[in-house]
Sequence to fold (282 residues):
Amino acid sequence: MQSTQVLNGFHASPKPLNTDKKWILAVLDGQILVPRKPIADNSMLIDQSSADQLKFFCQRRLWLGQWQGIDCQVWELSAEAKAASDFKLIELRNLLFTADDQAFSMACRAVQLLDWQDKHQFCGTCGLAMEGSSSEHAMRCEPCNISNYPRISPCIIVVVTRGEHCLLARQPSWPEGRFSALAGFLEAGESAEQAVHREVFEEVGVEVTNIRYVGSQSWPFPGQLMIGFLAEAVTENILVDGIEISEAYWCHYRDLPHYVPPPTIMGGRLIKQFVDEVSAEQ
Ligand SMILES: [Zn+2]
Fold:
């Protein structure tokens, strides 16, 4: 084993450290196959001896990085592995409620790497088959000297505040009473702050200032990075665009709607931070 600095939690590295022990994270059809009896502090991880019964069904292996300094590999399993009685399947979305940030990040990476490899089999310039690089997570076309990396699409998500109120919005496809923050993809050439100004203005016609970064979260459905902000409103009138947003209003912090996202999701974290900050001032 090489001597190296160990990051706590998950270290997303394409290179193994060749540790004596190894953890397996099993993915089946975009879901995570986890041991019924967790054997590590990260309940998704499978040790090598338990993974033996899954070996036969393994179709692809990729290095994920390290968990607490120990090498982790994602195994993509064929559907027959569902029958393995010591394991159960968990939807990636469900991990948002049960896994901590580090474990969730690791599961996101596993699913995203497999999905990215599947979708980058051929070079977009010459059409030849691409090959996986041995030194990094990249799909290479040597004749064109092109590398394709896992695609991550940045999105801003913002809670606009106005004193004791914050702006909550509902998308047309959501059930009545469900509200969250505003969100949207960055356009090419934009900074995240510019995207906040534009998205808020386009979706609800409000201008903002004092944009404050709060945090970010991987959102692997299929490959977003949610970058969360709080921003203060400069204007008050709401004009919903009727396409991405069907309903929006200034909500008092003591009177949140029945359905807002939990704080494990970035939208919920932003709402909670706003409520905590306003409550602290009272
Ligand atoms: Zn090419």
